[in-house]
Amino acid sequence: xxxxxxxxxxxQGLLLLGFCVQIFFSYTQIGFFHPDQHFxxxxxxxxxxxxxxxxxxxxxxxxxxxxxxQIYLFSGLRLLLGxxxxxxxxxxxxxxxxxxxxxxxxxFNSMA
Length: 112
Prior knowledge:
Layout: H1 9-28, H2 37-48, H3 59-63, H4 69-83, H5 89-110
């Protein structure tokens, strides 16, 4: 049974509620999910952009097990937001989480 999202008002309301929850939690998140969460992307991005970092002290650095696609995306977003004088990497993560929520909301609402 194929239900079109544009024709189903309750599903649109549920998606809007999910969108609001995503934006709320991306804005109000305090702390981190895992103790080395900030090392996973921020430190490797700093290393890639030749900024002060501790990437060489992380065990994943020598073992080369960290995927790079996320690092390239985050580094590109850092460069783009740096153009607008947004330099705080943790603020950039909040912006990334908000953008993900907006993109998913638009994606699900554009499905026909």
